[in-house]
Amino acid sequence: MVTTTYTVRRTTAQGCRDSAQITITIKERPKVTTQPIAAVSCATHPATFTVGGIGAGIAYQWQVNTAGCGGGGTWTNLANGAPYAGVNTPTLTVNPTTGAMDGYGYRCVLSGDCSPILGENISNCAVLTVNPLPVVAITPPSACGGVQGMFGVKLSVGSAPPPVPGAVTATSGAINLAVPDNTANGVNNVINVAGVPANATITNVSVTLNMSHTYPGDMIFHLKAPNGQILNLYKYGSGLFTGPASGVPTWGWYGATVSRNGSTAWSTVNAPPYIYNNSTPWRADAINGVVPGPTVQNPTGFVSNAATFNDLYTNGPSTNGAWTLAMCDGGPGDVGTLASWTVKIDYTVPGGGGGPVLTYVWSPLAGLFLDSLTTIPYAGSNTSVVWAAPTVFTTYTVVATNTTTGCIDSAKSDINYTPPPPVVTPNPVTMCLGDPSVRLVASTSTPFTKTVTSGTISVPIPDETANPTLQNLSVSGIPAGAIVTSMVVTLNMPHTYPADMVFNLKAPLMEQY
User: What does pTM read for this prediction?
Assistant: First the structure.
């Protein structure tokens, strides 16, 4: 912005002078100066896009095109709410990214005090690439470990090809279905979903609504799945009766998608205009109880009973079939018409071909070995196989890294320690037929060795005398309740005639041997 003050002076024929001033402010039009660049992320990790711009009163609006940067699709304004943040700032954050976002295009539209020219306010499209996480599993996921120095339990990890995403979308088309005012006797519409594969794993179920209503807070939407379960999608604006009575005909749902992965409550729209947009990840109200106030609590014949979208299916094929959207209006004086609705099933199927090249690092190190006899400790090298022989219960984790993308995932295995064999006392037993019975006691113990040394010393022994030379060693750390199974005394001493010597060992309890 440049501000300049101009002065004009007037001089009369008589030589009299006067002047006037005018200030002119020239504002810059909004213009992109630094383009956003493509971003690469690992699934579940964040990605960011940054734009630079100039302009008086500059404002930012990030947009997404799910068709990418190839020229097709529709650009949609983003709103703050998971996974998007900073939609009206120079830096857009996508967190977390998902595999479904791979190939999405993002751009920023700048605005300001002046109108733009020649599209200089619209940034280039930047594509988001989302790499899948490695798919890894440890075999076995749990086991009893081995005994160090004897044997170990083999832990091996392998990778599988990344799952392949897919989706099936079914739509009602234009139906323009009017909902009766202030009655539980509402209307419903059925969509048939087909084509979800038998080996599919469902990643999301979403419903998109297009409906105008002068008072959205009057409405109840229920979704009935092929398995007969019914989920409440919307009930009186999360129970808060959105909007003032008698609003405007353009309020309502416009491409509003409610899904299993949605995170934003309908009640966050708490000021006019009461419009649910197509960029916010709406979540289901899932209200199965009574909302205080209204008489109508469910559409007739469609009482909700599901807690989440997960209750609507058990596996991929169970999503195939008839999906019913049941609606009613529970308040007087306002009406709405459902223009259309859509059901979309997102899923993955197992990938084909070989898996990616991965590196594997195990932790913790304690109790892991590189050989089956557990004699070579594992020290953190890249290996897909280790042998476990922990002395305590241990959860081992392997971290797998894709050498091409750098994406990381992990797997765990719970290994219980193998106790030492029980000790039977007395052992052995020799008996004659008819002798009294011998009581045998079995106990479990943990092997333990304690070694105490004098270190290097030089103690002369006087010749031919009973006056002893003493050398003490202090022993500590023997556990309470320990059973001593053996004791060894090691001597290092030169002597010109060993038969002259007498060695006695005195114990802490004053016994001598």
Answer: 0.59
